[in-house]
Design a protein that fits this description.
The complex is a heterodimer. By secondary structure, chain A is an all-beta fold. Chain A is built from no helices and nine strands. Chain A has strands at residues 9-13, 18-23, 31-38, 45-50, 55-56, 61-64, 70-75, 84-92, 106-111. In chain A, the strands form two sheets. A five-stranded mixed sheet of chain A has the order 1-9-8-3-4, with no helix packed on it. A four-stranded antiparallel sheet of chain A has the order 2-7-6-5, with no helix packed on it. The relative contact order of chain A is 0.34. By secondary structure, chain B is mainly β. Chain B has strands at residues 5-7, 10-13, 19-24, 31-37, 43-50, 53-56, 65-69, 75-79, 88-95, 103-104, 108-112. In chain B, a hairpin with a 5-residue loop joins strand 4 and strand 5 (43-50). Classes of the chains: A mainly beta, B mainly beta. The interface between A and B is medium-sized, with 19 and 24 residues.
Chain lengths: 112, 113
């Protein structure tokens, strides 16, 4: 799986949009971008994933650049409960590449 | 619906004892995964099941670690002769098929004294 690069930490004011960047310059054409988050002492929580097109769900939006070398996870109205470590993972979604490879992620702190 | 569940939530054991950790995947999910997370570290893949078979055991750190899955559902991770370095949170995930999104359970925190 391609490696990803994320900033180690970020702060965001409560109520503002949190924009978390991820670089994946070696991503291949059939690799998806997945985002998970881990709130202290809990298991990772799936947020969103995409291949080429931008995606939105009830939790977040995922913006993938046209060349697919980077992406941004957007939490539109951050709350204190969004404080967590956010992981960007690229993964080929086919048999033989089942495991997720987690990096160090971005520790997002929402400031009241 | 019900998510992935794991038991126990916490386990404290003495060095040298055997432990069994249990994972109940989401109903209907054919793929099941075990990961572990040591204090302050990232998640480390251990083993993956498709049905009752384990095509990828590459992450098991030693032969003291084993896992099985029965009936295409519940899985048990067994650690024999536990060592202090086995202390970690053991996480289980499941997905509808191996190509699909993985959903994680809350984990079992194992402490080896």
């Amino acid at each position: 799986d391609a490696k990803t690069t994320q900033p180690p930490s970020m702060d965001c004011a409560e109520g503002r949009a949190a924009n978390l960047p991820c670089n994946h310059s070696t991503i291949s054409g059939n690799e998806y971008v997945y985002w998970y988050r881990q709130i202290h002492s809990q298991g990772p929580q799936y947020i969103i994933h995409g291949l080429k097109n931008n995606e939105t769900n009830e939790m977040a939006s995922l913006i993938i650049t046209e060349d697919r070398k980077s992406s941004t996870l957007i939490l539109p109205h951050a709350t204190l409960r969004d404080t967590a470590v956010y992981y960007c993972i690229v993964r080929i979604s086919n048999f033989g590449n089942e495991k997720l490879t987690f990096g160090t992620g971005t520790r997002l702190t929402i400031i009241p | 619906g019900a998510g992935v569940s794991q038991s126990p939530s916490n386990k404290v054991t003495e060095k040298g004892k055997d432990v069994e950790l249990r994972c109940d995947p989401i109903s209907g999910h054919t793929a099941l995964y075990w990961y572990r997370q040591s204090l302050g570290q990232g998640l480390e893949f251990l083993i993956y099941f498709q049905g009752n078979s384990a095509p990828d055991k590459s992450g098991l750190p030693s032969d003291r670690f084993s896992a099985e899955r029965t009936g295409g559902s519940v899985s048990t991770l067994t650690i024999q002769r536990t060592q202090q370095e086995d202390s970690a949170v053991y996480l289980c995930a499941s997905s509808l098929t191996a190509k699909d999104t993985q959903y994680f359970g809350p984990g079992t925190r194992l402490t080896v004294l």
